[in-house]
Amino acid sequence: MVIKQFRPNRNIKSARQFEQFIEPHLPHLYQLAYRFCNNQADAEDLVQDVVIKLLSKKDEMSRIEKLRPWLAKILYHQFVDLYRQKERSALGLVTEDENLLSELVASQQDSDPEHHMEMDIHQRHLQHAMQSLNEDQRTVILLHDVEGYTLTELEGILECPLGTLKSRLNRARQYLREKLQKI
Amino acid sequence: MDCRQLQQCIDDYLDGVLPAGEQDMARQHLSKCKECQSELNQIQELRQALRALPVPAPGPGFTSRMLEPIRQQQRRKNAVNGLISALAASLVIWLGVHIMPAQQPDTGVDAIAMSISEVRNVSLVFRAPDAFNKVTMQLELDGNIELAGYQGKTELEWQTTLKKGANTLVLPIKAIGSGDALVTARIKHQGKTRIFRIPVKIDRTKVQLRSPEVFVSA
After folding, report:
1. A127 CA to centre of own chain
2. pTM for the model
3. Range(s) for CATH 2.60.40.10 in chain B?
4. Mean pLDDT calculated for residue range A107-120
5. Of A97 and A67, which is predicted with more confidence?
6. Nearest residue in chain A measured CA to CA from B69
7. Nearest CA of chain A to the CA of B113: how many Å?
8. Contact B70 A15 (CB under 8 A)
9. Any idea which architecture B75-215 has in CATH?
């Protein structure tokens, strides 16, 4: 018995079909772009670059079985090509700012300010800890722990062996825990 | 399953991608081992905290702005298709296309004589010695001319392919005032550019064309 493997064959030939197809994926692409760029303007630029790139990959896109990791791979490589080379990575953009916490405290105007302040301070510390990870570790944490891609999917997205990914993930988590415990 | 084995597959367990049998074995080990259960809890807590990190909404009109390049490209394509499908060439200019490094303009094309308000379909026939993919075609209009149906546009650019032999581009040129004008066509391929300049002379009185066809050898 011959078992035929399922191969999608989406009809994405015209610009209109491409537009209809890509539109539902834009929110996720933006979210992922923001995680990498850490600011709205760069994230939007990155998504637009990806959309333009995808336009020339219509045929390939028609045949891709798992689109989400495939799109993530294209976005990640675009980020690396355009942004890391320009040293515009979020890693270099965020600096420790001692005034941040006091500003945050001053800006709290909530019915339960203590609870929300604790939440935001924790998130702020976590965000800073993330920025101080090395880029490889941060990328794995972002894609796996934040965005929920499996390690097998990351092998394809990052073109990196599974063992290396696991090792980066463990070191990154250890580093984040230590940073957060010091607070 | 022992502690070392569980540590090896703890992420696959959390991601729910372990084969059913191994998933059960991991669950059984976790139910008996406090250390591994604690490790699992810590990973889950960290994941939850990371996933709660906020992402601000994109700016207004995000979807529309992201899709605009596609719409622009489609508009350009439609404009070019309109040009190419223009009928009845009344003037044919043969241009040889050897994509060469030199950026010197091609010379030797006779001026097209027109009168004010006249619309003339000018066919540029690019004779390519071979097929070329991903060729960029640029058109530039200087002086008192415009393309009928594309008022106000002085520059057009699009990607195309050239087949081996004759490739015809029909330009509906309209004279909108007297004086000298110029049509510049640039063909770019792999960093090399070939430039063709077709002069146009517009007089207040109608002038008979010298020849319906002009051949330019490359």
Report:
1. 14
2. 0.57
3. 75-215
4. 49
5. A67
6. A52
7. 40
8. yes
9. Sandwich (2.60)
